[in-house]
Please model this.
Amino acid sequence: MKWWKEGIIYQIYPRSFFDSSGNGIGDLNGISKKLHYIKSLGVDMVWICPFYKSPNKDNGYDISDYKDISKIFGDLNTFDTLLKKMHSLGLKLIMDLVVNHTSDKHPWFKKARKSRKSKFHDYYIWKDGEKDKKPNNWKSVFSGSAWKWNEQTKEYFLHLYTKNQPDLNWENPTVRKEVYSIIDFWLSKGVDGIRMDVISLISKRLDFKNIPNNMIFIDVMEKYYANGPRVHEYIKEMNKKVLSKYDIVTIGEGPGINLNNGLDYVNEDENELNMIFHFDHLTMDFGKEGKYDPIPFDFIKFKKIFSNWDKLFSKRGWNSIFLGNHDFSRIVSRFGNDNEFHEESSKLLATLLMTLRGTPSLYQGDEIGMTNVDYSNISFYDDVETINAWKEAIDNKKNMKKFFEAIQKQSRDNARTPMQWDNKKNAGFSKVKPWIKVNDNYKKINVKNQEKDLDSILNYYKLLIKLRKENSTLVYGKYEDLGPMHTKIFSYKRWDENDVFIIHLNFSNCSVKINSNEIKDYKLVISNYTFAKKSYNLNPWEARIYKLIK
Ligand code: NOJ
Model:
């Protein structure tokens, strides 16, 4: 039994959480001010996205100093105060570690790009070539080639993300040592865990083979960018040299990680990571050309993904459960109905999140049912990934009306609009104009309204979190899908020697009958409809949790 198995993670995107300094950008002191709110949810761990020194080309995922804090967020003192306050409230802090790449403004890269003779040159991945002839056809995840020409040394460097995020060369043992020293710096301050950004990408396939034309993005990720030959050797080394010295939780972000290789990262016998974030359920609607070429949502497949991953970790390893984060659209807009069943479907998704086996991560704003944003044109968007994709679509003469619709659906900015605290100006997030436009629905959807309303999405989350905490069966118990082929309902059983639960989730706009025999000996524990008790019909987007009467 481990604290991180029983706990619940709350994820914060710091620039959109709460602005205490009045510059339109959320900050660490802002998080400090809202700790009582976070505590009131009943969560145990708080993962904060990067707040290190950074030119912010990719909102902090481009780091220029790993041992300092970006001025827009605070300084090392603000950090120490935040950590102390969190600990005094019994909250644990998970930091984001971004070591597949640095910023191009990191002193290592600045020196590396000046001369081939610099000792920092080998910190990055370089390839000879000619100015107009790229080393291979690899594409950046954020559009365009993954190679950028460096005039001073007359060679290319690799960047799997923006051109301002050069990939580190993990083959170089000095790079690895530097990374372990960074980890040690934060852990020795008392940080309780690490979420590791794109950790599956750190080992490169050194033959840098061309990718066959027409290969879909997910396959490219798995077979070319992620799961390189030395990835497990590196993670094991990191574990041995630094992670194992602390009682922490580690979660690897895993693009390219799937059912075939997932266990390799988290098998307890191998001493690597505690958990991974896989993306099977979040990329299942990506079409041939990726996220901006969406295909219809397949509910049967969605359920199967959860069942398969549960099975994978049923004997070894441990699952992490999440439905969205700062890189995907809002969960209620994506998997629910953010219109006429906004409240019901938000609560249903909360029920799913809190009743599966694994450690749940709740992303800021989902606890009040924040929705995708309705920006009218591209000028409102900020995210480098969205903007690059937009420019590429123009170059490729795409149908821009259709492409904009895809952006409205899939842009990462959907999940990055400021947290909606109240119905005052800027949703109570900041006294000045925020860095990105607030979602217009903040007058209706906000924390203050929901704190007052006992039936709100927020209070429903609190009840569910409490229920999970009081019933270890919901944490550790076995899982079985009771109707994998049902086209509207997700029903599953969670059980162990203490208790049995049945969970019914109606993922549809119509009412659907459930099997009365199945729940004959059960009592209703919670539902998102108050009048649900005796009916065998599930209302649209109704969620029910039943418990076996003993
Ligand atoms: C994954 C992060 O979650 C995302 O926000 C970032 O852009 C990429 N990794 C690159 O660091």
Notes: The first helix runs from residue 3 to 6.
